[in-house]
Amino acid sequence: MSERPLILVSNDDGITSKGIRVLVNVMKKLGEVIVVAPDSPQSGMGHAITIGETLRLEEEEIFDDVQAYKSSGTPADCVKLAKHYVLKDRKVDLVVSGINHGSNTSISVLYSGTMSAAIEGALEGYPSIGFSLCDYSSKADFSHVEEYVYKIAKQVLDHGIPKGVALNVNFPPKRNEDIKGVKICRQAHAKWQEEFSERFDPNGRKYFWMAGNFVNFDKGEDNDEWAIANNYVSIVPCQYDLTAHHAINQMNEDWNWEELS
Amino acid sequence: MSERPLILVSNDDGITSKGIRVLVNVMKKLGEVIVVAPDSPQSGMGHAITIGETLRLEEEEIFDDVQAYKSSGTPADCVKLAKHYVLKDRKVDLVVSGINHGSNTSISVLYSGTMSAAIEGALEGYPSIGFSLCDYSSKADFSHVEEYVYKIAKQVLDHGIPKGVALNVNFPPKRNEDIKGVKICRQAHAKWQEEFSERFDPNGRKYFWMAGNFVNFDKGEDNDEWAIANNYVSIVPCQYDLTAHHAINQMNEDWNWEELS
């Protein structure tokens, strides 16, 4: 057993993406790295898992000096396979996911495969981080963020994060000015406004492409959208207890409980 | 335009499942029903959406006197298609999803396609409910829950729920004793402990089946697991802001911010 931290790496763009290569190279400076990642892109998979279908998992020599596996499963499946099959009883010190090619700020956290791997890590009790670059290009420039990926992962290893929390870290795209710093934020109040492009296949059957416009309703300066727009790295601590606690009392008061009995 | 409430129905077990048929029949007593549901089972899809692939949507005469569409998409896709393509500018009064064949209590809410449709409805500003029966059989007996589906949907139509909240409603399986009543609950603290069954295909290549055991850590009596175990209907109000607000101050205090600058 190594005394270096054991770091599990996954992502949702697939094991051959540029973002995971950058992440693996940074993590090698901090500990022993094991990769379990999807064998193909899984963007938009949310917290999907594979039920009622079989899973593949194969070792792949793709990163220098790093044990790596590709799986047919979702990002959440990959973390489960890593814990219960690949690593078995070994203690994981950090789960990192990404670096995603594209933003996962605000409401996108719900749809994000990158963050589902991190949240799955948090569910297992491991400190976990999802990293995303707000640049959708497969050839995106990650050079300005490597230093921050290292520093943030080191903070988590050295100082920890609250139990059951996964960090949603987003980086501004490469701009002319340097990144201004790091902000701990709340999730911005925003949504995707979809548009469906209607087309016809060669057999005359209708099909659709979904496209979306991001609509930001949030005027605050303490949220992740503000941070990215102003060239800061945003970190939103995320939890997996979805209970809207404020609604419990309100519903107990507002509803007619005689009618419900 | 009808003056009856407009109710959108979706699910994750697919448009031909028994659970959605029961739900449609109950909703017809409360308003005008439109169905947009997956054309095949989508269990465990979490909040997945279809990006980078095309979507199909076709009208299907499957329910008496109800306009219904089946889609190749996920439950979240179905709600988006309903809002932006099928219903366009019509005001939706209620989104209901289910009735799921199987429990969506506690942490299962993260993996649940049923609840992703309801949460997508809440994101659009509509009162939304996901219904699940804690019985996985495709022929499950829903006779003891129809009355509660009606009453709960009626409460939501009459008294509303807080904005941005989706209700996660679970029903106990049919037992010898009657359901005791309805409880507003918090999400129980529990997790799935996976096991991977390793097998070999006819070509000698390894594959896996994922199986899980549910592990409940929660000793409280105010959570959904307790309610179901004690023969109550559980209602957890769920929100889509994942921010762990308590962690923001803690990280600002615990981390070494000089090292991060």
From TrEMBL, chains A, B:
Catalytic reaction list: a ribonucleoside 5'-phosphate + H2O = a ribonucleoside + phosphate
Residues that bind a divalent metal cation: D12, D13, S43, N100
All residue ranges annotated as the Survival protein SurE-like phosphatase/nucleotidase domain in the record: 7-194
Major enzyme class: hydrolase
Superkingdom of origin: Bacteria
Keyword tags: Cytoplasm, Hydrolase, Metal-binding, Nucleotide-binding
InterPro entries registered for this protein in UniProt: SurE, SurE-like_Pase/nucleotidase, SurE-like_sf
Job description of the protein: Nucleotidase that shows phosphatase activity on nucleoside 5'-monophosphates.
NCBIfam families: PRK00346.1-4 (NF001490), PRK00346.2-2 (NF001492), surE (TIGR00087)
Entry's family note: Belongs to the SurE nucleotidase family.
Name of the featured protein: 5'-nucleotidase SurE
Organism for this UniProt entry: Belliella calami
Gene: surE
